[in-house]
Structure formats: C-alpha cells, structure tokens
Amino acid sequence: MPYNTLITQIEDILRVELTGGRVPDQAVSESIKVWSSVSGICHERGLHKILAVLRLTGIPSRWEAFSIGEHADKLKFEKDIRFAIVDYNKDSLPMNLFAKTVAANRGWVGEVFENEDDALKWLNLLDGPEPYE
User: Fold this and answer.
1) What is the C-alpha separation between 92 and 96, in angstroms, rounded?
2) What is the pTM of this model?
3) At 125, is the secondary structure helix, strand, or coil?
4) Distance CA 14, CA 17 (A)
5) Is the N or the C terminus of the chain less surrounded, counting Cβ atoms within 10 Å?
6) 62-71, pLDDT tens digit by residue?
7) CB atoms within 10 A of CB 30
C-alpha cells in the first residue's frame, strides 16, 4: 500500500506527513519515492529544513532501515538539509534511530523525536547557535 503523503510549508520548514502502513519489502521503494519528491521540492523552494511526521503502522526491518538511511546520498538532497523526524509509532522508533545513524555516517544531519514540538524547537535552533551545545 503506498504511503499517503501530505506536504505543506511552514515558513522555512517543509512538513512531510506520512500515513498508512509499511508493507514488508516495500518500505524502501515507498520511502525512495516520497523522499525523491521531497528533495525536488526543497531544491525548487530553496528549503533546507524538513519536518517528517511519520504516522505509519508496521516496523521496518533492520535491512530496510539501513537501506533507507543509505539512500540519503542518492536522493539529490543538498548537504545542508536538516531532518527532524517525528515517529508516532513507538515500535518503529528504534529502527528510525538506526536509519538516522546510517544517514549520519554519510554526512547527513538529523534527529528523531517523539513529538512535533521538540522537533520544531530543534529545527528552529538551527538558525541560532548549534543545537548540540
């Protein structure tokens, strides 16, 4: 089942909300479709901050999480893109943290959160001092 995707812009942040269910052996291809589209939108609009809100059922496998993190390089995102990922599915949170680590090992900056308020605070800190201070 394809993900349902709602993309909106909130000031300088592109908000991408995904709903639906993860289907085994389709999570990687679905993710690539969504994030390829998002990459193009960011490039067209000159945006560098992404708030990804995941309301997906199911849990990606370790291989799927690795592949999704690994594909960050292939999606033509600018290297200054910052990802704040909100995962409302507590069961899939560990795999999204793993995917974030895989992407971070390839030079991408992102964090995984359990709620949108914390994610937005982190993204907005990127205009000021480094969020890691």
Assistant:
1) 6
2) 0.87
3) helix
4) 10
5) C
6) 998 888 888 8
7) 20
